[in-house]
Amino acid sequence: MTTIHSYTNDQVLTDVYHEDLRRARSATHSMIPTKTGAAAAVGLVIPELNGRLDGFAMRVPTINVSVVDLTFTAARPTTVDEVNAIVKDAARRDLRGILGYSDEPLVSVDFNHDPRSSIFDATQTRVVGAAMNSPVLRLEDLVSSVAVRGSRVFIRADLNVPLDEQGRITDDTRIRASLGAIDLCRKAGAAVMVTSHLGRPTEGVLAPRDSLAPVATRLSALLGRNVRLVRDWIDSPFEVAPGEVVLLENCRVNIGEKKNSDALAEVMARLCDIYVNDAFGTAHRAEATTEALARHAPVACAGPLLVAELDALSNALGAPARPLVAIVAGSKVSTKLTILKSLAEKSRISSTTRARSSIGWPHAAPRYLFRSTLCARRNSTRTQRPP
Q: For the Glyceraldehyde 3-phosphate dehydrogenase catalytic domain, which residue ranges apply (predicted)?
């Protein structure tokens, strides 16, 4: 915590002699950094925080009102709205008359003679850090700290693009979306290894259609530099130079990938200094390149695509506007049960709410046409629901 502190009666108005050279300076002419007793005082009032706060004071030439800038690490992901709501509720209830809450653009003199001990300025609340203050480490954080330079970076991307009968890419959206993490590492001076699954290969067998060769060609064109395709990268040693990008052949061909093999993950972990998961579309699957490798790699972090999704989910579910309606789509209901349970808790669905499953809708197909109006009976323009 940093206290921006009005000067007090133990400070001098003009420069004088003092053993503390900063205490010797005029409080009316300078901003004077000094130690603060506020952190210790908070610990005395709130025992749970005793010894957990530290900071300093900056004394400034104002005669009244001080500002405290408090920075803390939350125990879970949070949002600005949630923090402000908690303080506002406390100001109206338990700390009424002691703690104030303000969302107006006020300055220090506006609080002169205010009888409350402290006023919370809601306009200055910020949530910063990795993935909205979550325990997720971002690739951008590592790049900013120069930790990536000269490191071997292993990126698990989602390059599972559609191919036509001739094996040509028909939509390269996923490749283009993955360029962010790849370019970020390459420009930071890392030796970059990228892998992905493609199709549904049989472990231990690399069929021509399952090869990432078309992806390597397209990635080379998009990056404007040659991207080598490395085959047998688990069993055969290979080199990657700083600033170079190589594509590691279809990861689902490796025996043990789908079973989330720790032995396979340990081999992959030895290839890298930093592991990056940037494959949100497959992050829910416990496989060697998505789960086990994250545990065995020296450093594991989230790429920009994964972070963007996590941020969106945090904003949507952390402190959503009410009422909250959750709409979940998909053809396999069995894979949605866990997420439905989680959303039900966050949506606070009441006991009187009834849910109708869409499982039975396909049975209505002979009698109904599915359109933007949900469905309409065949030979009828009137929109109806299935019986």
A: 1-130
Helix (H) or strand (E) holding 142: helix 139-144
Instruction: Let me know whether 9 and 48 are in one domain.
Output: yes
Among the three residues 262, 281, 302, which one is the final residue of a domain in this structure? Answer: 302
- Quote the pLDDT of residue 133: 45
Tally of domains in the chain: 2
| Domain at 257, CATH number | 3.40.50.1260
For 50, residues 6+ apart whose C-beta sits below 8 A from its C-beta are 43, 44
- Indicate if 205 and 123 belong to the same structural domain: no
Q: How far apart are CA 177 and CA 191, in angstroms?
A: 20
Structure tokens at 245: 């990008």
pLDDT in tens, 87-108: 999 999 999 999 999 999 999 8
173 is in which domain, residue-wise?
139-302
**Tally of CB atoms within 10 A around 42:** 17
Q: What is the pLDDT of residues 148-177, one digit of tens each?
A: 889 999 999 999 999 999 999 999 999 999
Q: Residue holding tokens 């053993």?
A: 19
Same domain, 283 and 202: yes
CB 221 within 8 A of CB 203: no
Per the domain annotation, does 333 fall within a domain?
A: no
Q: Cα 140–145–146 angle (5° rounding)?
A: 95
Supply the DSSP string of 328-351, one letter for each residue: ---S-GGGGHHHHHHHHHHHT--T
Contact 79, 315 (CB under 8 A): yes
φ/ψ of residue 288, rounded to 5 = -60, -40
